[in-house]
Structures are given as C-alpha cells and as structure tokens.
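Possible regression after last week's pipeline update?

I re-ran a chain I had predicted before the update to compare outputs. Posting the input and the new output here so someone can diff against the archived version. Not blocking, just want to make sure nothing changed silently.
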Amino acid sequence: MFPLRDVTPQRRIITTLVKNWGDHKPDLKIDFNNHCAYCHSYDGFRHTWFEVDHFVPKVFFAPLGNISLTQYDNLVYSCKFCNNNKHNKWPSKSETIFNNGIEGFEDPGTQLYESHFYRTTNGAIMWKTPLGKWMYTEAFKFDQRERGIRLLWNLNQLRITIKKLDPIVSNLTPSDPNYLRLYSQLSRFAIEYFRYHDQLIEYYSSL
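New output (post-update):
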C-alpha cells in the first residue's frame, strides 16, 4: 500500500487580481506540483489537457456572491478527466459544507483529501473511507479509469527514478566500479519508460 500523493500540495496565499480564473493556472501548477489535484497524474506526459477547476462549483456560489470567480483558495489544478467527471457535482448544495462524511468532497489542497485514498502496489487508486468511496465511484470515476491511472503512476515513478539516477551515472567514469551496474539499471529503466509511454499513448488514443 502506498500514499496517494508523495507530497501534500499547499496553495499559497495569492490575492493578485486577475481578469479570468484561468490566469491563475501557472501558480496552481506550481502549488499542486505539476500534478492533478484529484488523481495525482503528472502533467508532463501530454495525455490530456490540464485545467483550472472551481472546487466549490461556481453554479452554487456565483448567485450568492460570497466567493469570487477568481478566488485563489477555491481553485484547483485538475486534469480534464477529473474536471469533467466532477463537473457540477456538489451534494450539499452549500458553499460552506463540503461533505457529510458519506457524500461530497474534501479540498485536495489539504492532507485530509489523501486520507480517504491509498495506492495499490500496481499504482491503482483505492478508497478507504465512505467519503473516499463516493469520490472514487461517483465524483471522479477512478474505478472506470483504473488502467489509465495505473499507467500514469508507473510511468511517473520511472520518470522520477531516471531523473535521480541519470546525473549519478553521468558523473561516473567507465573505470568506476559502480559505473557498469548503474548504467545497466538506468538503461533498463529507460526501456521500461519507453514501453509504458507507448502503452499510455495507445490507451488514451483509444478513448
């Protein structure tokens, strides 16, 4: 069992006035560590668009005027799949009540969000609370997206490993006793990365 996310994202306090909520996308990308806030897919594989989601859907708060359309602490960096699945789902119908413990949402900019999920050893997302189950099946449909989520997680783990190992190998000379072993490992990871990437492109091209 693994945690859903390696690092809990933290929104900075940003009060800069912008004309459109999409103008906050570069800052959200930084605060959410280049990952979808909900499924934690990395945004560098070009498998889909990444968008700005209103955590509390604007259809509920806009008429009341208590939350600005560009208010940073209500915005989320989200992949298109999570954003489209979430859409205007908001069971409480209240801008101040996120969930009732069984249905609703947890702010993905907090550690509470990841307490509802875990990763299996093959990278799939699973729920571990009643609220997590609702988000898993009803809100984001992680169950219907399992293969894509697994491919993205495994590919990203390989990316991280290669990124760490490559500079180590680059700084060794062929005469170093560790060079051949580490170079072979790096080559194996690179081949696995290539294969996972091909599977990822094939999978998302078929959707």
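Follow-up from reviewer: compared with the archived run. The chain has a mean pLDDT of 95. Marking as no regression found.
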